[in-house]
Structure formats: structure tokens, C-alpha cells
Amino acid sequence: MAAGDLFHKQGIRGVGVEAIAEAAQTNKMTLYRYFASKDELITEWVRGIVAHKEEEWKDLDAKHRGDPTGQLQDWSRRTAAKLREMEERGSALGNAFAELPDPNHPARRVMKEHKLRTHKRVVRLCKAAGFPDPAFSANLFSMMLEGAHSCGTCVGMRQIGEHLVQVVDRMVENNQRQRAG
Amino acid sequence: MAAGDLFHKQGIRGVGVEAIAEAAQTNKMTLYRYFASKDELITEWVRGIVAHKEEEWKDLDAKHRGDPTGQLQDWSRRTAAKLREMEERGSALGNAFAELPDPNHPARRVMKEHKLRTHKRVVRLCKAAGFPDPAFSANLFSMMLEGAHSCGTCVGMRQIGEHLVQVVDRMVENNQRQRAG
DNA sequence: CCCCTATGTTACCGGTCGGTAACATTTTAG
DNA sequence: CTAAAATGTTACCGACCGGTAACATAGGGG
User: In 3-state terms, what secondary structure has residue B146?
Assistant: First the structure.
């Protein structure tokens, strides 16, 4: 869905259905034959993003099977890579969350469930990696990964990405050293 | 400005000028005699938030004069306290940022300058606190503080606040131990 | 008391937006 | 080739929104 770029760049509320249709190389009428409302469009877009992220987690899991610390490190590296080519406008999901004040909006539910799944996954990884307080470390990771987006707008995405990777690496190494020694 | 609550709760774009006027216990006309446009209203609101935050930094500085680590710790504690009484809807500034896609919007400029000032301040504090890599540590702090808002929506604001405080405390203590030993 | 200023009221304008109806056109399948 | 299904086109509706004009009402200082 190329229309998603519009949502991300101009904000959900800032882009009209007509523009969405144009970006999707169709027209409003056909759009409304597939989606009942703009909200459904939004929700489907969010669902797509979430699905993509979950897919990435599967990739991560496949590439580092039985290596939780490797997964965590790769996760930070991928995030840093994405940050590098983002520049200015923040996270798509984060912005969408901000633009949908209604807590009962279906798109919000999708996001929340995804967030929860992701968080549980990170906790699980931290536990498997042998962190003494998995919930604590997971929160730390999540906070940084989330915060990097907004923080990068003033520090520069490259630097924030690098530091992100460094922090995660350092935490992982410290943990491994502690377990070994 | 009580109208600011509306901006925060319903989103900038989701609240009309009429509603703003009502919240300010006046009417649209009088509003437009003081503010040229809705964008100016937004900008002034953002300016208010920023001013309040800067004021808090002054407080922090006054309360912990010559004690940079104390400032950092108190900063995290105050943020945690605010998180605790926030529940659901994220950071006002963060959301505003997401809702103003135009990078040349005056409100965005205000936010960006504030972010930059804050970041420099944190770097300065980290340097004064004797952190070996101040830029690195400052980024770490900032990332966590920013990320806590969005992260708290799935973990719970209380827990995220506690962990935030713990992390900062631990970092500070580690640093002090390293300098002493 | 009166004038001047600040505030309130109402109605309105132009524009945009989400969504729909009716009809024309193209594509696909049998 | 033809019938049916999908897609495109145009025009429109009602609602809302940012912003303004004109006028009414207060209210405070001389």
C-alpha cells in the first residue's frame, strides 16, 4: 500500500480519502467498495505495518535460533538501520497512536496488541539470555528503542542509531561476562 | 490555558476553535482578537508547555546546585511521577509533533529548539557528573525518558516509571563507584 | 453620566472532507 | 462475442471547520 506513505508523511488526519485513492492508483469509489470507511482503511494500514514487524521478528528468530542475545542485538541493529533512513518524521505507529485519541479505535487495539506481543517477546528473550531481571531489562530495551525515534530528531538519526546498538551490545556483553565470571 | 487539555486529550486536529473557546470560557471571536489563527494558538500552547518544562529545569538546578547526578536522578523521578498520573494518552509534545507534519510549523520549531536545549543540558550534566562518554550517556537518558511514554501504554505507567528511576539510579551509582574505585 | 474599549452573539462564507448515487467504461469469463 | 462483474467518472450531499462581519452588550474611567 503506497498510500501508507501519505499517512506517515502527512499524518492520518492530514490526508484525504481522495489523495489515498490517487496514491493507490485508483479512485475513491473503488476504495469504498473494499473498505467501509476511512477508519477501516487506517486500521488495515496499521495492520499491515504490524504484520510486517511480526514477520521481521520471525526472521530474527529464524536467523538466531537458540541465540536470544543475538536476536536482541540484531533487533537493535535493524532498528538503527531503519532510523538511519528515516530522517525527521517519527515512527509510523507512534504517530498513528498520537493521531487516534479514541482508545476504542480498532487501529489502536491492533497497535496495543502488537505492542504487548512485542514486549512479551522481549521479556522472553531477556529471560532466555539470562538477564537477572528480565522485566527490567526488557523495559529498558523497549524504552530505548521507542525513544530513539523522537530523540533522533534533535541528535541525528545516525548517532542515535549507533548509540542504540552500542548500549544493547554493552548490556548483552556485561550480562554474559557476569554469567561467565 | 485549560484548552490545552483538549489539545492533549483529543489531538490538535481533533478539537475545533469553538471548543477551545468554550474551554477557555470565552468565545471564538474574542479568541481571534488575541490569536491570529489556530496555528498561532497551537504554537502558543506549545510555547507554554516548553516554558513550563524549562522552568522545571531551573527548579532542578536550584535544588541540586553543584550536584549534577542529583539533578539527573530527580529528573527521572519527576518524569516517573508525571507518568504515573498520565495513563493512556502519551506525551503532549510528542503527540503534537506527530500531528504537525509540516517541518516549518512554528510550533515545531519551538519544540525542536526546546529538545535541543534539553539535550545539551543533559549532556552537560553527564559531563559534570563525570560520565566517561557524556554524549553517549545523555542519549541513553534521553531515549529512555522519551520512550517511557509510549512504552508505558503496554507495561503500565507505574512500572515503567519505577524502572526508569532504577535505571538512572543504577547508572549514576555505577559511575560514582567507578570514579571512586 | 457618557464615551470608549473589551467582550459576547449571531450569522455567515468558502473550503474541505467523508461518503453515496447514478451512470459510463473496461475487463474478465464462459 | 456476449453477459456479467469490476472499475472508473462525475456530481452531489451533509457536516464540519477556520475565519470574518456586523451588531449588541457590558463595564470601567473620566
Answer: helix
Is residue A154 over pLDDT 90? Answer: no
From the CA of A42 to the C1' of C21: give the distance in Å: 25
Closest in A100, A146, A164 to B151, CB measured: A146
Distance separating alpha carbons of residues A170 and B105, to the nearest angstrom: 39
The conformational region for residue A26 under phi > 0 = left, psi -120 to 50 = alpha, else beta, is: beta
CA distances to A45, A54, B66 from A39, in Å: 10, 22, 53
Cβ-contact B84, B149 below 8 angstroms? no
Tell me: pLDDT of A87 over 80: no
Which DSSP letter does residue A25 get? T
Write out which nucleotides of chain C lie closer than 7 A to a protein Cβ.
Answer: 7-11, 16-22
State the cell numbers at B167: 535505571
DSSP string, A101-133: --TT-HHHHHHHHHHHHHHHHHHHHHHHTT-SS
* Predicted pLDDT of residue B1: 64
For residues A69 and A172, the answer to whether their CB atoms sit within 8 Å is yes
For residue A154, the chain B residues in CB contact (below 8 A) are 112, 115-116, 119
Residue type, B178: Q
B126-143, pLDDT tens digit by residue?
Answer: 999 999 999 999 999 999
Which burial class, exposed, middle or buried, applies to A174 when counting CB atoms under 10 A from its CB (0-12, 13-18, 19+)? exposed
B155 and A119 within 8 Å at the Cβ level: the answer is yes
Residue type, B96: A
Structural contact between residues B7 and A94, judged by C-beta atoms closer than 8 angstroms: no
**Residue B6, CB half-sphere, CA atoms under 13 Å: how many?**
18
Residues in chain B: 181
The overall pTM is greater than 0.85: yes
Measure A105 CA to C25 C1' (Å): 37
B63 close to B42: Cβ distance less than 8 angstroms: no
